[in-house]
Amino acid sequence: MPSRSSKTAVGKRDSAAQPHVKTLTDAKGSNYPPGRMLIASPLAVQDELATVPAGRVITAPQLRARLARRFGADYTCPITTGIFLRIVAEAALEEARAGEVPVWRVVSENGALRATRPGGAERLAARLPAEGVAGVRRRSRWGVDDLAHVALTG
Q1: Can you give the pTM of this predicted structure?
Q2: Most exposed among 52, 54, 140, 143, judged by the fewest C-beta atoms under 10 Å?
Q3: How far, in Å, CA of 124 to CA of 108, rounded?
């Protein structure tokens, strides 16, 4: 089997470093306080997404908190988690597995879907009703109608 180019999303996902915890002794900004910060991996993000059941969504901060607990960290880097989420979504499209990796279940804190994900927010919102989650369009943004009802806790 030929090796995959690291320029593809599949190559990026499969060749990324393993998750590791970095100890910050000084704050590096409001999102990076002193403590044990997890730098996840695309595969760790993909594995965590697999635990979100149909009919539920998870906010990005909840996803990061779950990853941090799983790896014994205080928090998870928000920047790399967002990058890894996009890599996971793009890899699923490359492998024609977009319906198997539930990136549409990750929403922002206010319930909005990210338009920057592959396929865009409208395509992601179209997947939610099949799972019993009401997706709505507010002005120019797609999101979840009742975040309190469908969001996972913790």
Answers
A1: 0.83
A2: 140
A3: 13
